[in-house]
Amino acid sequence: ILKIKHDNGIIERKLKCLLRSARLSRRKDYSSLNSVLGFIRAQLQSSGQLHGYRWMYAKCRLNGYRVRKEDVRLILKESRICINGCIDGFSRKLVWLNAYTTSSDPRLVGGYYIEAVQRLGGGPAIVRGDFGTENGHVCDFQRFFRRNHHESTESYLDRASTANQRIESWLRFLRKECLEFWITLFVNLKDRGIFDGGFLEKSLIQFCCMGLIQDELDDTAEVWDSHIIRPSKNDNVPSGRPNAMYALPGLCRTTDFLTPIEDDDIQTCKTECTFRQSVPCDPDVYDLCNIIMAESQLTLPRDAYKAIDLYIFLRNYIKATL
User: Which PANTHER family match (predicted)?
Assistant: First the structure.
């Protein structure tokens, strides 16, 4: 830009030296988190509730807020149960779709991958994943499984999320058909002043809603895998039912690239994994909630609105005893 617009061909090293001497930096004088939080909460009252953290970060910058991208991500995640998914690039069949307390732990995501390998009876020839540390174990496991193949280093491909069109497109579908309802419920709790993202309230949301959300994810995945994908103008994009295309790839004139994995290799990788536990939240909060529910003769609801009622009851009960 300096060369083309200002006819100044200064080299990068010289530019950095001048910036240091003038005490100029992109990463200092950050806005207070309270002011950023206020701006983001205002955005969530309108179409801003549909933004991911990268888009919200860009809006913060455009509105004069100096903020770390990581801070924006944490603010947006404070009330959310984290979703992680994987889709077969050919058939569009869901390989896994899980809800848990985090989606950024590489050991946990690696556990999802190993569970899928065991369930499906083998591993893929190629895995395509987003940039990010959460996929580090998946990358290592995939290359370890393919170590005796000549393309072992190419069996895992790091790409920007915008390049992983299959899963990104499907996650947009998931939000529209399933998650938007839950997001609206949680935003409503914040608007009513009965959820502030604290440890207790986050644990109670997980206790009351995690199972229901996972059930809805399972139902959504089942419907998706059995629905018919219509033919496209692009001849390279197959059409049909994801379950059928995955199970019988020969119908689409291709072959099955699933590769059997030695059980010893799987067991070696499992030692580096973390797996979801049956307890959906902090163990102490979980035990306390079960005691309160037993004393009050309550059970976990199978309805979202009753789950929110249970959250409010437990929150008020525990806060009254503190």
Answer: CLR5 DOMAIN-CONTAINING PROTEIN, EXPRESSED PROTEIN
> What is the pTM (predicted TM-score) of this model?
0.74
Same domain, 71 and 90: no
Residue 303 located in a structural domain: no
Q: DSSP label at 252?
A: G
Beta bridge partners of 157: 128
Burial class (CB in 10 A: 0-12, 13-18, 19+), 143: middle
Let me know whether 68 and 180 are in one domain.
no
Q: Cα separation of 90 and 88, whole Å?
A: 6
Domain of residue 236 covers 82-270
pLDDT tops 60 at residue 27: no
How does pLDDT run across 113-147, given as a tens digit for each residue? 999 999 999 999 999 988 888 999 999 999 999 98
DSSP 71: H
Q: Is 229 left (phi over 0), alpha (psi -120 to 50) or beta?
A: beta
Residue 139 CA to residue 127 CA, distance in Å, equals 8
